[in-house]
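Weekly puzzle thread! Below is a chain. First person to post its structure in token form gets bragging rights.
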Amino acid sequence: MGDNNNELPVAVVALVVAVVALAVALLQITQAILASARGLPNCDERVIGKWAESTQKIFKPSQLRVEVLFQAPVIFIAPYDNKNGPVKDAPVKYGPVMTWNGPPKNGAVANGAAKDGTVKEGPAKSQLPLTMEGTPDSCTECRVSWDEVMGVKTAPSPNAKERVHTVENEKATWVTLLVAIQKMEKESKSWETKQHKRLAQPPRTDATDADSTISRLDVQKSPTLTVQMQIKQRSFETNPAIKKPYATTTISHLVQLAAVLGLYWKVFDPDDNKYRAAGNGYSLMGYRVTDFGIVFTFENTGSTVNEARRVIPTSEVKELCFGRVPTLYRARGRENITKEGRTFSRMKLEDNEWQDPLYISSQTGPKIEIFQLGSEDEIVETLTQIGCNVNTTTYAKTSGRNKHLFPVTFEVIGMLARTLHITDRCFRFLPNPTIFPWDADSLSLSQLLEAYSRLLGDHHIEMTSQKLENVEDGAKSDIEKIEQLVDCSRELCGDVGQGQGRHLTYLQLNHLHRAIDAADEIIKDGDTPWDNQKVVLDVLRCHLQEVLGAINNNPGTSSYREKSPSFHDLLELPPEKRERSFMRTYFEKILWSVIRLSTDRVGKVEQEQVSRQIHKETENRQSLHVHAPVAIRVGDSAPSSPSSPADSPTTPPAIHRSLTPTPGLSHNRNYPSVEGASKKKIEEKPSWEKTLQSKAEMQRVKIWYALVFRMICWLMLHDFDKKDIQVPSSDLMGNRQPVFIT
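Winning reply:
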């Protein structure tokens, strides 16, 4: 009996020890199971913010481990009404979308903004990708802190300078990226609303019906370039090389996103896997992770400016990021949409077919609808496509020999690039599509416009002072078009000249836009825009040849020609007088070298023969009403029959090429050799009396005036960051290689 009493405590102790051991063992097993949950500590709110709420932990009993599932965004660039996304199984619940319907009317605030400056929302969308719009609801749907977007944590007062904290570096950088996008949208829209409230002018429209006016404004002025995202659920087990949740995009969308946020590339080397961009207070760096892919980190390194320097929200920005410039000869197709039970016709939001690298590569033949200016070789190819000679392409490729007041490449852009400004919007900035920097502080475009207007008026007076009885009707029509340019330039000087430097109101930007439209009508004068395309290209190539020749015609060089144009005098002039001297050289020397067709000048005989033949072919085609087949172009609403399917972006490149013959100057014609021209013939002094008698030369005068006027207006209407130059390869346009942001 005593032994039993002694055994009971021992049994109890043994039981307690066993239970404790079992508990410890269970805790060890639990700890081991929890330790198998890879990435769980990095799914904390301190790392991924509000995205931590969607983290899931799934226990797998067969494997005695825990799998961690997290949600992260897939980021891409698309038009505002895009209905497709890369994630097919994405959630379908999305928030309201803000709409912008133009400037305020009669002192009211802009549609989409309350009187206190906050943005209100339009009708909700469903089953659509999320559009980042800088509104509280958009931030909620994108799981971004509105306080961070407003800068509450970094700037306690409205006038306080934004402070960047360097000690809170545990947060995933893609969360910082989402905040930066929302902040850019919020600040730029608030600033634009203030600009419209300050002027309190109604939008310019030709419509008479109020309802149709509002609907058309809503359709036309909605941005065709927005940052969108979809939510994708992922597991850490599929990518063991990554410890933090990561966002996904593609290399082409990342390049475009960097441009939207104001970053410019300093290093972009896919061969060595080194990528670095900086600007506007942000930094973006990329490298390759073994067995995973290219990983980028996004950081806020300083204060940001997202107001007037915001990039124009137009889809062509996606092409400019890769050195491709759409021209005025690239027609916009049209499409029908239904809105609130009514059908509207509008221009297509995107030229998707022209973003196909295979379609516009050099192997398919040069196309004047797009200029490629992202490298020296592409610039040479573009100038060759225009028809320039070897000397000109050599000058353009040589560093330091292709600039007067600014690089000549920007002349090409200003003369033929598509107008990218959006009517009634305040934004002007674009990514630089060239390898040359644009420094708007080194010249005054307003003074250049004033000098142009004055010299053009003087030329017009000289023309009309001649006897016009014997002048052909075609030349008289050209004089009338030149008079329109005179009036337009004078009116523009009176309006835009009142702007302070580069700070132009949206009304002044609208005026510049209308001036470019007027110049386009003169450049594309004819039954179709492509009737006199060859003449325009011939005038442009002669102009570029003369300008680049003048830049490289300096005293002291072996190639110096005393009587040829030269910009050497610009080097000795003070900055206040350079624009006038520059434009005087254009009007007094460059113009006459470009337009003349029968002078037998030394070294110009062959060029004049080709130009005369181009004019002859153009006149014959117009007289016979046989227009170039390029009137039916990719993206146009061309008529189609049941037996002939309409063109579409899915059509193979071979079919596209059959419908769109390569435009530009012909290089396969055999011209007879020119003999008998005296190399010592004294060059005649140009005069309006003889020029007015030549219909072809007057046509060239009109086109040259319009091209120069358009160049000045286009460069005033658009702007570039002076630190931004083209670095990424044009081959990356449309590249869908996935990249990751940690």
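Puzzle host: Confirmed. Bonus trivia for everyone else. The first helix runs from residue 2 to 35.
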